Amino acid sequence: MSDNSFDPNQYRKQTINRLIIGGILLLFVVGVGLILYYYGPGAAGMGTLCLIGGLLLLAIIITILALMQWIVDRNRPK
Which of 7, 33, 34, 45 lies in the 20 to 30 Å Cα band around 26? Predict the structure, then answer.
């Protein structure tokens, strides 16, 4: 008998990751593409820098929250 069991938690994590990556790609491709079309390459470069800066801030916040969760989990009595 093969081990082809369905794991809903793994499926949920995979789906969420794919949606996040797809949303970020869509934001960059469509957003920067429209800026490039209407305002030119200089504005598209600045738009890209702003998007990267915003994503960097978001990544810092998520990292801090994950670190806080790790500390709480580590210090929680078993």
Answer: 7
The radius of gyration of the chain from alpha carbons, rounded to an integer in Å, stands at 19
φ/ψ region of 40 (left if φ > 0, alpha if ψ in -120 to 50, else beta) reads left
Are residues 43 and 31 in contact, defined by beta-carbon separation less than 8 angstroms?
no
pLDDT band, residue 38 (cuts 50/70/90): very high
pTM: 0.75
* Residue 43 contacts residue 35 (beta carbons within 8 Å): yes
> For the residues of 12-29, what is the DSSP string, one character each?
HHHHHHHHHHHHHHHIII
